[in-house]
């Protein structure tokens, strides 16, 4: 059995998504991994009430249109008892970003890019 039913990658860089998806697939964390280049499209997807129950979401901070912080603020509206696990994944090394992520109770971690097996395992 997998620890997650679904893994959602949200990053505006398709190369990062491809690399991260390959790493995640090697770790056998989920039978399904999907990626979104736009946070607003991911939010629409996550609004589906019939969605799998154990979801891991990896979201980048710096994206055009809707950044990671905007995503988290809007996720608050749909959260409503969901058990999703959200990890911020960013190239930012700013301590304030790490602190800001702690303001959201459903964010369970912050990983600096690049994503590695060790970094991901340390948060799971």
From TrEMBL:
Which keywords does this Swiss-Prot/TrEMBL entry list? Phosphoprotein
- Which InterPro entries does this one have? CheY-like_superfamily, Sig_transdc_resp-reg_receiver, TCS_response_regulator
Q: What is this protein called?
A: Response regulator
Residues annotated as domain Response regulatory? 6-124
Query: What GO terms in the biological process aspect are recorded for it?
Result: phosphorelay signal transduction system
- Give the 4-aspartylphosphate positions (modified residues): 60
Cite the SMART domains for this sequence.
Answer: REC
């Amino acid at each position: 059995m997998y620890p997650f039913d679904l893994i959602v990658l949200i990053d505006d860089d398709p190369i990062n998504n491809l690399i991260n998806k390959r790493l995640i697939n090697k770790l056998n964390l989920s039978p399904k991994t999907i990626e979104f280049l736009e946070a607003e499209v991911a939010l629409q997807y996550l609004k589906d009430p019939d969605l799998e129950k154990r979801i891991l979401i990896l979201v980048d901070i710096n994206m055009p249109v809707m950044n990671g912080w905007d995503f988290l603020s809007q996720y608050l509206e749909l959260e409503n008892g969901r058990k999703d696990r959200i990890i911020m994944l960013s190239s930012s090394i700013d301590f304030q970003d790490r602190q800001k992520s702690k303001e959201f109770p459903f964010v369970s971690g912050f990983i600096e890019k690049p994503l590695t097996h060790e970094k991901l395992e340390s948060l799971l």
